[in-house]
Amino acid sequence: MHHMKPFAFLLTLCLMTAAVAREPMKALIVDGQNNHKVWPETTKRMKSYLEETGLFTVDVATAAPKGTDPDFKPNFSDYAVVVSNFGHGAAAWPEETQKAFEEYVAGGGGFVVVHAADNSFPEWPAYNEMIGLGGWGGRNEKSGPYVYTNDKGDVIRDTSPGRGGSHGKQWEFPVVIRDKDHPITAGMPLEWKHAQDELYDRLRGPAVNMQILATAESQSTMRHEPMIFTIAYEKGRVFHTPMGHAEYSVECVGFIATFQRGTEWAATGKVTQKLPDDFPTADKASSRKFQE
């Protein structure tokens, strides 16, 4: 190549880089045990949302419906990112699967936590560190502090005793961006209306190396609860959203774009996607009916 003109050489280099960039990444959705009976529907939508970015091919690994599934042994290292759609009451994964997952995330794998996935595995210390905050499953002050923000956006770590996890009735709630410079939230309106969903509050956990990107004010706690946040777990990047209760919740364009961007960020540390034109505003929620 040394005899090529510099411009031609650069052009070749650019074309080679573009070809590499177009190779989609592999994502894995894990599911199978969730108190939300709608989980097959939310998995289907999340798979489709990731595929439509053109950035991912998506596999799904589904555990047996009850008890620890001895055959649940996904090969995590094959994937750039793993998305959990497990839920409350999910049985522990086999010990070797837990160890493999810990090594995967610690070694730099991406992990995405959606809605009830933060209810799962209260007894698994590394998992609770990865998700930052969780609820239900007997979580309480031993699990770590409540974490929320005050009106000024200061992060409060509240160690008072009490159960972890609750929510009021479902509603369309305003999501308030707390970090407008993070790749996931960059360019989003500073406030936008999310479609009908459960607003999780009183989440608590280790919350180490955690960054809150957006919050929503709970009508039961009257405080701003984390709605979009990230956690650094050793070399791994974790994106966590407690939004996404039902099929109508994940059809919110705000949820879709947050999920797509958060998954890309967990996989690569950056976001290349543009915000969609139908992104919600402060006054108006925006949803896309899922087409089978």
Brief rundown of the structure:
By secondary structure, the chain is of the alpha/beta class. It has helices spanning 6-22, 39-52, 95-106, 125-131, 247-250, 253-268, and strands at residues 25-31, 56-62, 81-84, 110-114, 146-149, 155-158, 166-167, 174-177, 191-193, 200-201, 210-217, 224-233, 236-241.
Question: What features would you describe in this structure?
Answer:
By secondary structure, the protein is an alpha/beta fold. It has a single domain (25-268), classed as Rossmann fold (3-Layer(aba) Sandwich). 24% of the residues lie in helices and 23% in strands. The chain has 6 helices and 13 strands. The chain has helices at 6-22, 39-52, 95-106, 125-131, 247-250, 253-268, and strands at 25-31, 56-62, 81-84, 110-114, 146-149, 155-158, 166-167, 174-177, 191-193, 200-201, 210-217, 224-233, 236-241. A 9-stranded mixed sheet has the order 2-1-3-4-13-12-11-8-9, sandwiched between helices. It has a two-stranded antiparallel ribbon with strand order 5-6. β5 (146-149) and β6 form a beta hairpin. The longest helix is centred in the N-terminal third of the chain and has 17 residues, at 6-22. The chain starts with 5 loop residues before the first helix and ends in a 24-residue tail after the last helix.
Summary tags:
alpha/beta, 9-stranded mixed sheet, globular, 292 residues
Number of helices: 6
Strand element count: 13
The CATH topology: Rossmann fold
Shape: globular
Mean pLDDT: 95
Distance between the termini: 49 Å
Strand order of the largest sheet: 2-1-3-4-13-12-11-8-9
Using only CA atoms, what is the Rg? 19 Å
Give the percentage of residues in beta strands. Answer: 15-25%
Largest sheet: 9 strands, mixed
CATH level 4 superfamily: Class I glutamine amidotransferase (GATase) domain
CATH architectural arrangement? 3-Layer(aba) Sandwich
Structural class: alpha/beta
Helix content: 10-25%
- Report the CATH C-level class: Alpha Beta
Low-confidence stretches: none
Output the helix-strand order.
HEHEEHEHEEEEEEEEEHH
- The tally of domains stands at 1
